[in-house]
Amino acid sequence: MVRVDGTIERGRPEEYVGAHAQGFNTGSIGINFAGNMDKMQPTPAQIESGTMLLADICTRHGLTPDVNTIVGHRDLMATDCPGQNLYDILQTLRGKAIWYQQNS
Q: The pTM is what?
C-alpha cells in the first residue's frame, strides 16, 4: 500500500500468494495506491515512494520495470482499477523505476 503521504505499508509477505488479480495472483505482487485515482491524481510523494518500491521489487527479483512487468489491474481483468489518473502515468512510473534501479 502506498499511502497519499508516500508511506509504504506492507501487506502479505512476498512469499505468500496474494488476492489482488484473480487468475494472476501466483507469481505477481500487487501494489495498491491509496485514493480514488479516477477522481484524484497520485501525489508526488506516492509517485516517488511507489517508483522506489517498484525499482526495489524488480531489482530483488531480477526484473526490468517495463510494460510486461508493471501493469495496471485493468490489463489483467475487467476493472477500472487502478483508476485513469494512475493508469495514465504507468509509463512514467516505469521510467522512474528504471532510473532508480540504475542509480542505486
A: 0.92
